[in-house]
Amino acid sequence: MRFTTPLSYLFGGLLLAIIVVVLFAAGPRSAFAHGGSHAGPVVKQMGKEAALEATLPKPAKSIKKIVAVDQEAVTWAEETYGVRLKKGLYSYFIAQDEQSGKTIGGAVVRRSPFRQGRLSLVVGLDAERQVTNVALISINKNYFFELEESMSKGIISTYRGMSIAQITNAKELSFSNKTQQQFAVALRDATVLLATLMNCTQQNSDEEVGG
Fold this sequence. Notes:
- The protein is of the alpha+beta class.
- Helix content is 45%, strand content 25%.
- It has six helices and six strands.
- The protein is globular, with a radius of gyration of 25 Å.
């Protein structure tokens, strides 16, 4: 009996140490799996259809397009707007006049990492390549609070009427506030992508007419 009691204390201590190590190791992974960091839960402002409705010029019918951004398009975007895009297939929506069939604008949905969370927005352009509207679909709660003052029901109208050049040179791009600065970057990239997709579609249409 004099030997069993110390051994039970020894095994008990080892078991406790193992439990502590396991919990410590699992803790960070568990936090990360649940969206961890400090971004907070995702806050949804509106659905995709409502966001497109708010950003596509009216009256018009919406048509989904899939466009390949090749090296030529990447070069065009960089030379024209100073933004380097990634090559690949992208989808966007055009607004087409129901009577004339003429394209009067477009909109693109962009979902991307945003700081320690996720961002989903829609930006629209009219035929003159001016911003029709910017709609926020969703963003993490803590970042939403920092952007809330500039929007109404998910619509950020402060960008309405801006040219692409104004978007790519917006003062918010150099803000010390990280959330506002990163949002300006995401909006800039989405706007340039949309302009590039619309340009590619126009070029393809011109080639079909000319050919």
